[in-house]
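ESCALATION

Customer reports they have been waiting on this structure for their group meeting. Please prioritize. Original submission:
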Amino acid sequence: MASNGDDTRYAFIAEWYDSHAAINRRYQFLFYTKDSTIEMFDIKNRRVFLKRSKYENISLKDVYIGAIINVHARQLKIADYADKFTRNKLETATAKTYAMIKPDAVKHTGQILERIQQEDFVINQIKKVNVPRSFAMKFYAEHEGKPFFEKLMSFVTSGPVVAMELVGVDCVKRWRQLIGPTNTQKAKEEAPNSLRALFGTDATRNACHGSDSDESAERDVVPTFI
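Update from on-call: job pushed to the front of the queue and completed.
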């Protein structure tokens, strides 16, 4: 986002739950791109909490709304942007999408996660779960009444899935590209290195799910069964 010589500063609101005082403490959390340093200010007490310093375990891609980061044994949640500049620069760059490894491909989870990391996605949340039929019917409501609907319901609820929230630049579009066309045969012909081409079987047993638009991603991210 910024060149090595550009000391761009991104500002966030970070929260830390102080269990001793039973309150949430709020900080202005600053990240500087030139040298990947961080700085923190205690908002309530209006004082420096952490002077600008290098923190090896944090990079800009780790800092986005909803992210959990650890700074000197404090688990901080990035709750909001602290200024318009940061919001305008990063809001679209840190988009989220819902990704799911379907029952037929769960056995290939390791290989799929490796591809996800290679493509520079951040896995914000991940859980192996069994999908209740009630949720599956709601999730795929747009297909209700179609000839394949019951087959789809039976398949999605036939075994565990791996549900994930992915974060990254142009996340929805890039995840859709990585998984490939819905029909596995078409994926093999048009995108042979896609996840559906490599691990899918047909149009239903097609290895992975991905939200098809930013609007769908907003609805799908962190489903209730997670």
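Sent to customer with the following note: The longest strand covers residues 9-18.
Escalation resolved.
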